Amino acid sequence: xxxIAEGVLFIPGQDEMIPDSHTYVVGLPAxxxxxxxxxxxxxxxxxxxxxLRQMGIDPKSIRRVILTHTHFDHIGCLLEIxxxxxxxxxxxxxxxxxxxxxxxxxxxxxxxxxxxxCQTRYGVKSGAFILxxxxxxxxxxxxxxxxxxxxxxxxxxxxxGSIALYHPPKKILIPGDVIYAxxxxxxxxxxxxxxxxxxxxxxxxxxxxxxxxLPGHNEVVTKLPAGCIRETLRQWAxxxx
Length: 241
Ligand SMILES: [Zn+2]
Ligand SMILES: [Zn+2]
What we know:
Elements: E1 2-5, E2 8-11, E3 23-26, E4 34-37, H1 45-54, E5 62-66, H2 72-75, H3 78-84, E6 89-93, H4 94-101, H5 106-109, H6 112-122, E7 135-137, E8 142-145, E9 148-154, E10 163-167, E11 172-174, H7 195-206, E12 212-213, H8 228-236
Parallel strand pairs: 4-5, 5-6, 6-7, 11-12
Antiparallel strand pairs: 1-2, 2-3, 3-4, 8-9, 9-10, 10-11
Helix pairs in contact: 7-8
């Protein structure tokens, strides 16, 4: 686990056949009001909890899990983590929270082929991710997380309820799987994906100043070159219709 900035910790994902998302912990340590962003793949909860303990973080100070979106590689170990910390609230964008509450797990797996592969490989049963979202997030909502303010930016296209969390004072962006630091972007061929929406979402992100880019996978960058998001959009725009 690495400290990225005051109030932002990074636990790298441990990819296997299916990727495991990076996990971030946000909130000032003294606040005792920490949030876990994207727990990760099934089976990856215990090492992430160990990483928290090694950093001397009291599990009781972690109050909630916020999901950038509910794909299997981000939500997979939520249950495992909730077993250890049953008090954790789950906050998700309303467009993915409501279907999950109703038992619609299509976004979790993205496509039928992945559903059978994930369920066979990990022994997960249908209905495993039916949950109650304590808070349903909306675009441009301001969240006070551990004495830091984070803006919710709704960025659909990779999935319908994808969000970024943006912390203006330090220009930190946590965009889930919508954009990565190497000019690549999230796939847009899954259930709920939409290339045109992804283009508009990238445009929305390109209007923010970002110094620290903390995506769901791959490289984490603390000195993002100016205009990087705009350049990524320029390269991908012809394919995003
Ligand atoms: Zn992912
Ligand atoms: Zn994803």
